[in-house]
Amino acid sequence: MLGKEWENTSFAEIGLLHQAPNDNDLEKFQHALTLMSEADNSSDLLIPLISDFLIWFYYQKTPLKWIPFLGHFFNTWQSCSFPPRRYLLAKILSGRISELLKVSPFELAASVTSQDVVEADSLVEENELQAWLEKQELVPSSSNFLNSFWISGGERELTEEEQNSLLQSNTTYTNSDLPASKQLESFISMNLSYSKVFFLHLLQHSDSSFNDKFLLLLANIPVTVSNVEVLLYLLQQEESLAQFDLNGKSFLYHMLVSLHNQVTNTSHLEKQRISTVATLFISKLFEIPSLSEYLSSTLFLDLQAFCIVALPQSAKLFQKVKALKNNP
Question: Can you list the GO cellular component terms from the UniProt entry?
Answer without folding.
Answer: CCR4-NOT core complex; cytosol; nucleus
